[in-house]
Write a structure and sequence with these properties.
Elements: E1 2-4, H1 16-21, E2 43-53, E3 61-67, E4 71-74, E5 78-85, E6 94-96, E7 118-124, E8 129-134, E9 149-154, E10 163-174, E11 191-196, E12 202-206, E13 211-218, E14 225-229, E15 235-239, E16 242-248, E17 253-256, E18 261-267, E19 275-281, E20 286-294, E21 326-332, E22 354-355, E23 360-367, E24 373-377, E25 383-384, E26 399-402, E27 407-413, E28 418-426, E29 434-440
Parallel strand pairs: 2-5, 4-9, 10-13, 12-20, 21-23, 22-29
Antiparallel strand pairs: 1-17, 2-3, 5-7, 6-8, 8-9, 10-11, 13-18, 14-17, 14-19, 15-16, 15-18, 19-20, 23-27, 24-26, 24-28, 25-27, 28-29
Length: about 450
Protein backbone atom coordinates (compact mmCIF):
# COMPACT_ATOMS: atom_id res chain seq x y z
CA UNK A 1 0.00 0.00 0.00
CA UNK A 2 1.13 3.57 -0.61
CA UNK A 3 0.14 6.83 0.94
CA UNK A 4 1.36 10.42 1.13
CA UNK A 5 2.88 11.21 4.49
CA UNK A 6 3.17 14.65 6.14
CA UNK A 7 6.97 14.79 6.21
CA UNK A 8 8.06 18.40 6.02
CA UNK A 9 11.50 18.54 7.62
CA UNK A 10 14.57 18.21 5.41
CA UNK A 11 15.90 15.80 8.02
CA UNK A 12 12.93 13.49 7.38
CA UNK A 13 12.15 12.86 11.09
CA UNK A 14 9.79 9.94 11.51
CA UNK A 15 9.18 7.30 14.16
CA UNK A 16 7.60 3.88 13.74
CA UNK A 17 4.18 5.10 14.89
CA UNK A 18 4.19 7.93 12.37
CA UNK A 19 5.39 5.60 9.65
CA UNK A 20 2.51 3.23 10.24
CA UNK A 21 0.07 6.12 10.43
CA UNK A 22 1.22 6.95 6.92
CA UNK A 23 -0.36 3.70 5.75
CA UNK A 24 -3.84 4.89 6.72
CA UNK A 25 -4.61 6.75 3.48
CA UNK A 26 -2.97 7.27 0.45
CA UNK A 27 3.88 18.61 -28.02
CA UNK A 28 4.73 15.55 -25.78
CA UNK A 29 8.02 14.17 -24.63
CA UNK A 30 9.85 11.63 -26.69
CA UNK A 31 8.22 8.39 -25.66
CA UNK A 32 9.84 5.13 -24.69
CA UNK A 33 9.50 2.63 -27.53
CA UNK A 34 6.54 0.33 -27.03
CA UNK A 35 8.56 -2.82 -27.64
CA UNK A 36 11.07 -4.14 -30.08
CA UNK A 37 9.86 -7.69 -29.46
CA UNK A 38 8.16 -9.60 -32.20
CA UNK A 39 4.63 -10.85 -31.72
CA UNK A 40 4.38 -14.22 -30.03
CA UNK A 41 5.42 -15.68 -26.73
CA UNK A 42 8.70 -14.23 -25.47
CA UNK A 43 10.66 -16.69 -23.34
CA UNK A 44 13.10 -16.16 -20.49
CA UNK A 45 15.04 -18.47 -18.21
CA UNK A 46 15.57 -17.62 -14.54
CA UNK A 47 18.11 -19.47 -12.43
CA UNK A 48 18.08 -19.64 -8.66
CA UNK A 49 21.73 -19.76 -7.69
CA UNK A 50 24.31 -18.65 -5.15
CA UNK A 51 25.43 -15.05 -5.47
CA UNK A 52 26.96 -12.19 -3.48
CA UNK A 53 25.94 -8.61 -2.77
CA UNK A 54 27.94 -5.69 -1.35
CA UNK A 55 26.14 -4.58 1.82
CA UNK A 56 29.05 -2.90 3.60
CA UNK A 57 32.81 -2.42 3.44
CA UNK A 58 34.75 -5.65 3.20
CA UNK A 59 34.04 -8.92 1.38
CA UNK A 60 30.66 -9.22 -0.38
CA UNK A 61 27.84 -10.98 1.43
CA UNK A 62 26.63 -14.42 0.20
CA UNK A 63 22.96 -14.46 -0.87
CA UNK A 64 20.70 -16.42 -3.22
CA UNK A 65 19.57 -14.63 -6.39
CA UNK A 66 17.39 -15.03 -9.45
CA UNK A 67 19.75 -14.79 -12.43
CA UNK A 68 18.42 -14.04 -15.87
CA UNK A 69 17.48 -11.27 -18.30
CA UNK A 70 15.52 -8.17 -17.43
CA UNK A 71 11.82 -8.96 -17.04
CA UNK A 72 10.25 -6.33 -19.30
CA UNK A 73 7.34 -7.22 -21.54
CA UNK A 74 4.40 -5.56 -23.29
CA UNK A 75 0.77 -5.77 -22.25
CA UNK A 76 -0.97 -8.59 -24.08
CA UNK A 77 2.10 -10.79 -24.43
CA UNK A 78 2.30 -14.24 -22.89
CA UNK A 79 5.70 -14.80 -21.34
CA UNK A 80 7.11 -18.30 -21.13
CA UNK A 81 9.25 -18.47 -18.01
CA UNK A 82 11.58 -21.36 -17.25
CA UNK A 83 12.89 -21.59 -13.69
CA UNK A 84 15.98 -23.69 -13.01
CA UNK A 85 16.63 -24.23 -9.32
CA UNK A 86 20.39 -24.54 -8.78
CA UNK A 87 20.11 -24.09 -5.02
CA UNK A 88 20.49 -26.85 -2.41
CA UNK A 89 16.88 -26.44 -1.27
CA UNK A 90 13.41 -26.37 -2.91
CA UNK A 91 12.19 -23.00 -4.22
CA UNK A 92 9.11 -21.57 -5.91
CA UNK A 93 8.52 -18.39 -7.91
CA UNK A 94 6.08 -15.96 -6.31
CA UNK A 95 4.49 -13.44 -8.72
CA UNK A 96 3.14 -10.43 -6.82
CA UNK A 97 0.39 -8.40 -8.44
CA UNK A 98 -0.33 -10.65 -11.43
CA UNK A 99 -4.10 -11.16 -11.33
CA UNK A 100 -6.06 -14.17 -12.43
CA UNK A 101 -3.34 -16.63 -13.49
CA UNK A 102 -4.33 -19.56 -11.32
CA UNK A 103 -1.98 -21.91 -13.19
CA UNK A 104 1.05 -19.85 -12.03
CA UNK A 105 0.06 -19.68 -8.36
CA UNK A 106 2.80 -20.87 -6.00
CA UNK A 107 1.88 -23.86 -3.80
CA UNK A 108 -1.79 -24.10 -4.89
CA UNK A 109 -0.91 -24.86 -8.54
CA UNK A 110 2.89 -24.87 -8.68
CA UNK A 111 4.67 -27.14 -6.21
CA UNK A 112 8.16 -26.14 -5.07
CA UNK A 113 10.90 -26.92 -7.58
CA UNK A 114 13.33 -29.43 -6.10
CA UNK A 115 17.06 -28.72 -5.94
CA UNK A 116 18.52 -29.28 -9.42
CA UNK A 117 15.10 -29.41 -11.12
CA UNK A 118 13.43 -27.11 -13.65
CA UNK A 119 9.89 -25.87 -14.21
CA UNK A 120 8.24 -23.87 -17.01
CA UNK A 121 5.10 -21.75 -16.82
CA UNK A 122 3.07 -19.40 -19.01
CA UNK A 123 2.26 -15.86 -17.84
CA UNK A 124 -0.50 -14.14 -19.86
CA UNK A 125 0.23 -10.46 -19.15
CA UNK A 126 -3.20 -8.86 -19.44
CA UNK A 127 -2.36 -5.83 -17.28
CA UNK A 128 0.32 -3.20 -17.74
CA UNK A 129 2.10 -2.18 -14.55
CA UNK A 130 4.88 -2.74 -12.05
CA UNK A 131 5.04 -6.18 -10.47
CA UNK A 132 7.44 -8.27 -8.42
CA UNK A 133 8.92 -11.75 -8.76
CA UNK A 134 10.63 -13.33 -5.78
CA UNK A 135 11.53 -16.83 -4.68
CA UNK A 136 11.65 -16.23 -0.95
CA UNK A 137 8.23 -17.71 -0.14
CA UNK A 138 10.00 -20.74 1.35
CA UNK A 139 12.92 -18.63 2.57
CA UNK A 140 12.21 -18.36 6.30
CA UNK A 141 15.10 -19.76 8.30
CA UNK A 142 17.14 -20.83 5.27
CA UNK A 143 20.90 -20.66 4.99
CA UNK A 144 20.87 -17.40 3.01
CA UNK A 145 18.44 -14.57 2.29
CA UNK A 146 17.11 -14.16 -1.24
CA UNK A 147 16.98 -11.35 -3.78
CA UNK A 148 13.93 -10.38 -5.86
CA UNK A 149 13.35 -9.19 -9.43
CA UNK A 150 11.15 -6.46 -10.86
CA UNK A 151 8.60 -7.44 -13.51
CA UNK A 152 7.60 -4.54 -15.78
CA UNK A 153 4.72 -4.81 -18.24
CA UNK A 154 4.69 -1.78 -20.52
CA UNK A 155 1.59 -0.05 -21.82
CA UNK A 156 0.71 -0.54 -25.50
CA UNK A 157 -0.03 3.16 -25.90
CA UNK A 158 2.44 6.04 -25.69
CA UNK A 159 3.27 7.36 -22.21
CA UNK A 160 4.65 10.90 -21.97
CA UNK A 161 7.94 10.16 -20.22
CA UNK A 162 11.56 10.34 -21.35
CA UNK A 163 12.94 7.69 -19.01
CA UNK A 164 11.58 4.65 -17.17
CA UNK A 165 13.59 3.56 -14.13
CA UNK A 166 13.06 0.75 -11.61
CA UNK A 167 13.83 1.59 -7.96
CA UNK A 168 13.70 -1.80 -6.21
CA UNK A 169 14.38 -1.63 -2.46
CA UNK A 170 15.40 -4.67 -0.38
CA UNK A 171 16.14 -4.97 3.34
CA UNK A 172 18.81 -7.13 4.97
CA UNK A 173 20.10 -8.06 8.43
CA UNK A 174 23.90 -8.15 8.46
CA UNK A 175 25.99 -9.83 11.18
CA UNK A 176 29.36 -8.48 12.39
CA UNK A 177 31.20 -11.04 10.23
CA UNK A 178 29.53 -9.63 7.10
CA UNK A 179 27.11 -12.50 6.53
CA UNK A 180 23.35 -11.88 6.30
CA UNK A 181 20.61 -13.89 7.95
CA UNK A 182 17.38 -14.99 6.32
CA UNK A 183 14.03 -13.72 7.62
CA UNK A 184 12.28 -15.88 10.16
CA UNK A 185 15.43 -16.01 12.31
CA UNK A 186 16.17 -13.94 15.40
CA UNK A 187 18.44 -11.09 14.20
CA UNK A 188 20.30 -10.73 17.55
CA UNK A 189 23.28 -8.46 16.89
CA UNK A 190 22.60 -8.05 13.17
CA UNK A 191 22.19 -4.51 11.83
CA UNK A 192 19.72 -3.44 9.14
CA UNK A 193 20.92 -2.60 5.64
CA UNK A 194 19.07 -1.57 2.49
CA UNK A 195 19.89 -1.82 -1.20
CA UNK A 196 18.40 -0.30 -4.34
CA UNK A 197 18.68 -2.43 -7.47
CA UNK A 198 21.32 -4.49 -5.65
CA UNK A 199 23.45 -1.48 -4.67
CA UNK A 200 23.74 0.51 -1.46
CA UNK A 201 23.05 3.71 -3.42
CA UNK A 202 21.62 4.48 -6.85
CA UNK A 203 22.42 7.66 -8.78
CA UNK A 204 19.99 8.80 -11.46
CA UNK A 205 21.24 11.44 -13.90
CA UNK A 206 18.64 13.54 -15.72
CA UNK A 207 18.53 16.66 -17.86
CA UNK A 208 16.61 19.81 -17.07
CA UNK A 209 12.94 19.54 -18.16
CA UNK A 210 13.21 15.76 -18.52
CA UNK A 211 10.33 13.64 -17.23
CA UNK A 212 11.30 10.44 -15.40
CA UNK A 213 9.04 7.57 -14.45
CA UNK A 214 10.26 5.91 -11.26
CA UNK A 215 8.84 2.50 -10.42
CA UNK A 216 9.26 2.23 -6.64
CA UNK A 217 9.10 -1.39 -5.46
CA UNK A 218 9.42 -2.52 -1.87
CA UNK A 219 10.95 -5.99 -2.01
CA UNK A 220 11.62 -5.70 1.72
CA UNK A 221 11.03 -8.86 3.71
CA UNK A 222 9.59 -7.37 6.88
CA UNK A 223 10.09 -3.59 6.95
CA UNK A 224 7.56 -0.85 6.24
CA UNK A 225 9.51 1.99 4.64
CA UNK A 226 9.05 5.57 3.54
CA UNK A 227 10.95 7.24 0.71
CA UNK A 228 11.27 10.96 0.17
CA UNK A 229 12.48 13.26 -2.61
CA UNK A 230 12.65 16.93 -1.68
CA UNK A 231 12.36 19.77 -4.18
CA UNK A 232 10.40 17.60 -6.61
CA UNK A 233 6.70 17.31 -7.28
CA UNK A 234 6.19 13.56 -7.04
CA UNK A 235 3.09 12.58 -9.01
CA UNK A 236 1.73 9.15 -8.14
CA UNK A 237 0.37 7.52 -11.30
CA UNK A 238 -0.15 3.89 -10.23
CA UNK A 239 -0.36 1.93 -6.98
CA UNK A 240 0.34 -1.81 -6.63
CA UNK A 241 0.64 -2.06 -10.41
CA UNK A 242 -2.78 -0.54 -11.19
CA UNK A 243 -3.34 2.97 -12.63
CA UNK A 244 -4.69 5.58 -10.22
CA UNK A 245 -6.11 9.04 -10.69
CA UNK A 246 -2.84 11.04 -10.52
CA UNK A 247 -2.15 12.74 -7.19
CA UNK A 248 0.78 14.53 -5.62
CA UNK A 249 2.77 12.82 -2.87
CA UNK A 250 2.81 15.27 0.01
CA UNK A 251 6.35 16.59 0.58
CA UNK A 252 7.58 14.05 -1.98
CA UNK A 253 7.11 11.15 0.47
CA UNK A 254 5.73 7.66 -0.14
CA UNK A 255 5.04 4.89 2.39
CA UNK A 256 5.36 1.30 1.15
CA UNK A 257 4.61 -1.97 2.91
CA UNK A 258 6.67 -5.05 1.95
CA UNK A 259 5.58 -6.00 -1.56
CA UNK A 260 4.00 -2.59 -2.24
CA UNK A 261 4.70 -0.64 -5.43
CA UNK A 262 4.13 2.91 -6.66
CA UNK A 263 4.77 4.40 -10.10
CA UNK A 264 5.59 8.12 -9.94
CA UNK A 265 6.43 10.80 -12.51
CA UNK A 266 8.88 13.57 -11.69
CA UNK A 267 9.70 16.57 -13.88
CA UNK A 268 13.28 17.77 -13.51
CA UNK A 269 12.98 21.54 -13.20
CA UNK A 270 16.16 22.21 -11.20
CA UNK A 271 19.30 23.82 -12.62
CA UNK A 272 22.25 21.83 -13.96
CA UNK A 273 24.53 20.43 -11.27
CA UNK A 274 21.79 20.14 -8.63
CA UNK A 275 21.93 16.94 -6.58
CA UNK A 276 18.86 15.83 -4.61
CA UNK A 277 19.08 12.89 -2.18
CA UNK A 278 16.48 10.13 -2.12
CA UNK A 279 15.96 9.26 1.53
CA UNK A 280 14.63 6.04 3.05
CA UNK A 281 13.10 5.84 6.53
CA UNK A 282 12.42 2.55 8.30
CA UNK A 283 10.59 4.05 11.31
CA UNK A 284 13.81 4.43 13.28
CA UNK A 285 16.14 6.51 11.15
CA UNK A 286 16.52 8.08 7.74
CA UNK A 287 19.35 7.27 5.38
CA UNK A 288 20.23 8.28 1.81
CA UNK A 289 19.78 5.42 -0.70
CA UNK A 290 20.15 7.36 -3.90
CA UNK A 291 20.18 10.76 -5.54
CA UNK A 292 18.96 12.56 -8.61
CA UNK A 293 21.69 14.59 -10.30
CA UNK A 294 20.78 17.20 -12.90
CA UNK A 295 23.13 16.84 -15.85
CA UNK A 296 25.22 19.72 -17.21
CA UNK A 297 23.90 18.90 -20.68
CA UNK A 298 21.50 21.43 -22.23
CA UNK A 299 17.82 21.12 -21.23
CA UNK A 300 16.02 18.34 -23.05
CA UNK A 301 13.33 20.88 -24.09
CA UNK A 302 12.75 24.61 -23.52
CA UNK A 303 10.07 24.15 -20.84
CA UNK A 304 8.60 21.37 -18.69
CA UNK A 305 5.94 19.12 -20.15
CA UNK A 306 2.27 19.74 -19.36
CA UNK A 307 0.74 17.50 -16.66
CA UNK A 308 0.58 13.86 -17.72
CA UNK A 309 -2.72 12.24 -18.53
CA UNK A 310 -3.75 9.31 -16.30
CA UNK A 311 -2.41 5.91 -17.31
CA UNK A 312 -4.92 3.81 -19.19
CA UNK A 313 -7.08 1.58 -17.01
CA UNK A 314 -6.38 -2.15 -17.01
CA UNK A 315 -10.11 -2.76 -17.04
CA UNK A 316 -10.78 -3.32 -13.36
CA UNK A 317 -14.41 -2.47 -12.47
CA UNK A 318 -15.20 1.18 -11.78
CA UNK A 319 -17.60 0.20 -9.01
CA UNK A 320 -18.00 -2.79 -6.70
CA UNK A 321 -21.48 -3.69 -5.51
CA UNK A 322 -21.18 -4.27 -1.76
CA UNK A 323 -24.82 -5.21 -1.18
CA UNK A 324 -25.12 -8.98 -0.93
CA UNK A 325 -21.36 -9.47 -0.81
CA UNK A 326 -19.80 -12.61 0.63
CA UNK A 327 -18.38 -11.41 3.95
CA UNK A 328 -15.49 -13.16 5.69
CA UNK A 329 -13.61 -12.37 8.92
CA UNK A 330 -9.89 -13.13 8.86
CA UNK A 331 -7.68 -12.86 11.94
CA UNK A 332 -4.05 -11.98 11.16
CA UNK A 333 -0.83 -11.82 13.10
CA UNK A 334 -0.76 -15.11 14.98
CA UNK A 335 0.21 -18.60 13.74
CA UNK A 336 -3.06 -20.21 14.70
CA UNK A 337 -5.99 -22.02 13.15
CA UNK A 338 -5.49 -22.69 9.46
CA UNK A 339 -2.55 -20.32 8.95
CA UNK A 340 0.60 -22.32 8.22
CA UNK A 341 4.18 -21.73 7.15
CA UNK A 342 4.55 -22.04 3.35
CA UNK A 343 6.79 -25.09 3.78
CA UNK A 344 3.91 -26.83 5.60
CA UNK A 345 1.20 -25.88 3.10
CA UNK A 346 -0.83 -28.71 1.58
CA UNK A 347 -3.37 -28.35 -1.19
CA UNK A 348 -5.85 -30.49 0.72
CA UNK A 349 -6.15 -27.91 3.50
CA UNK A 350 -9.54 -26.21 3.89
CA UNK A 351 -9.75 -22.82 2.13
CA UNK A 352 -10.25 -19.58 4.04
CA UNK A 353 -13.40 -19.11 1.94
CA UNK A 354 -15.04 -20.14 -1.31
CA UNK A 355 -16.92 -17.78 -3.60
CA UNK A 356 -18.72 -18.00 -6.92
CA UNK A 357 -17.24 -16.21 -9.91
CA UNK A 358 -18.73 -12.73 -10.29
CA UNK A 359 -19.51 -12.26 -6.58
CA UNK A 360 -18.16 -9.45 -4.43
CA UNK A 361 -16.06 -10.45 -1.43
CA UNK A 362 -15.61 -8.25 1.64
CA UNK A 363 -12.83 -9.32 3.99
CA UNK A 364 -12.61 -7.95 7.54
CA UNK A 365 -8.91 -8.20 8.43
CA UNK A 366 -8.15 -7.99 12.14
CA UNK A 367 -4.55 -7.79 13.29
CA UNK A 368 -4.16 -9.59 16.61
CA UNK A 369 -0.38 -9.25 16.73
CA UNK A 370 1.45 -6.73 18.89
CA UNK A 371 2.97 -5.12 15.80
CA UNK A 372 1.91 -4.14 12.29
CA UNK A 373 1.07 -7.06 10.02
CA UNK A 374 1.24 -7.11 6.23
CA UNK A 375 -1.54 -8.81 4.24
CA UNK A 376 -1.08 -9.79 0.59
CA UNK A 377 -3.88 -11.09 -1.64
CA UNK A 378 -3.00 -13.18 -4.69
CA UNK A 379 -5.14 -13.35 -7.82
CA UNK A 380 -7.15 -10.13 -7.43
CA UNK A 381 -6.70 -6.45 -6.54
CA UNK A 382 -8.94 -4.94 -3.89
CA UNK A 383 -10.34 -1.64 -2.67
CA UNK A 384 -9.70 -0.45 0.88
CA UNK A 385 -13.13 0.38 2.29
CA UNK A 386 -14.03 3.38 4.40
CA UNK A 387 -15.02 2.68 7.99
CA UNK A 388 -18.75 2.58 7.26
CA UNK A 389 -18.48 0.59 4.02
CA UNK A 390 -19.89 3.66 2.27
CA UNK A 391 -16.97 4.13 -0.10
CA UNK A 392 -13.36 3.22 -0.76
CA UNK A 393 -9.96 4.74 -1.33
CA UNK A 394 -9.47 5.84 -4.96
CA UNK A 395 -6.84 3.28 -5.91
CA UNK A 396 -6.42 -0.48 -6.13
CA UNK A 397 -4.19 -2.52 -3.82
CA UNK A 398 -2.92 -6.06 -3.45
CA UNK A 399 -0.88 -5.40 -0.28
CA UNK A 400 -1.94 -3.75 2.98
CA UNK A 401 -0.26 -3.15 6.36
CA UNK A 402 -2.58 -3.18 9.36
CA UNK A 403 -1.70 -1.72 12.74
CA UNK A 404 -1.94 -3.78 15.96
CA UNK A 405 -5.49 -4.29 17.18
CA UNK A 406 -7.05 -2.68 14.13
CA UNK A 407 -9.55 -4.07 11.64
CA UNK A 408 -9.51 -3.01 7.99
CA UNK A 409 -12.13 -4.01 5.45
CA UNK A 410 -11.35 -4.64 1.82
CA UNK A 411 -13.52 -5.58 -1.15
CA UNK A 412 -12.87 -7.21 -4.51
CA UNK A 413 -14.84 -8.70 -7.36
CA UNK A 414 -14.05 -12.41 -7.72
CA UNK A 415 -13.47 -12.35 -11.48
CA UNK A 416 -10.91 -15.11 -11.92
CA UNK A 417 -11.69 -18.76 -11.20
CA UNK A 418 -8.98 -20.74 -9.45
CA UNK A 419 -7.16 -21.30 -6.18
CA UNK A 420 -5.11 -18.39 -4.85
CA UNK A 421 -2.83 -17.76 -1.88
CA UNK A 422 -3.26 -15.28 0.96
CA UNK A 423 -0.07 -14.18 2.75
CA UNK A 424 0.35 -12.66 6.19
CA UNK A 425 3.53 -11.62 8.02
CA UNK A 426 4.24 -9.41 11.02
CA UNK A 427 6.77 -6.60 10.60
CA UNK A 428 9.44 -8.27 12.71
CA UNK A 429 12.47 -9.98 11.17
CA UNK A 430 11.97 -13.14 13.23
CA UNK A 431 8.23 -13.38 12.54
CA UNK A 432 7.11 -16.32 10.37
CA UNK A 433 5.48 -15.82 6.99
CA UNK A 434 2.07 -17.53 7.00
CA UNK A 435 -0.29 -18.56 4.20
CA UNK A 436 -3.81 -19.73 3.51
CA UNK A 437 -5.75 -20.02 0.27
CA UNK A 438 -9.16 -19.18 -1.19
CA UNK A 439 -11.20 -20.57 -4.06
CA UNK A 440 -13.12 -18.80 -6.83
CA UNK A 441 -15.43 -21.34 -8.47
Amino acid sequence: MVRIGPMTSPKFPLDRRELMAGLGAAALAPVLPASGRAQGAPSVTLQGKADTIALRDGPPTPVWSLHGPELRFKRGETAEVAFANELPTPAVLNWRGIDGIASAEPLTARPPVAAGAKQTLQLPLRHAGTFLCDFGLLGDGQARPTRSRALVVRENEAVSVDRDEVFLIEDWRVLPDGSAIAPGLEPKDAVPAFTVNGRTSLEISARTNERVRLRFISACQRTVIATKMENYEVRVMAVCGQPAEPFQARSGALVLAPGGRADVFIDVALPAGTSTPILLHDGKEARPVGKIVVSSEPPIRPAPLPPAAPLRSNGLPERIELKGATRVDLALGTPQGDWVAPASFVVTAAPAFRVKTGRTVVLALTNRAAMATVFHLHGHHFRLLDRLDDGWKPYWLDTLAIEPGQTQRIAFLAEHAGRYLIESVATDWAAPRLVRWYAVE
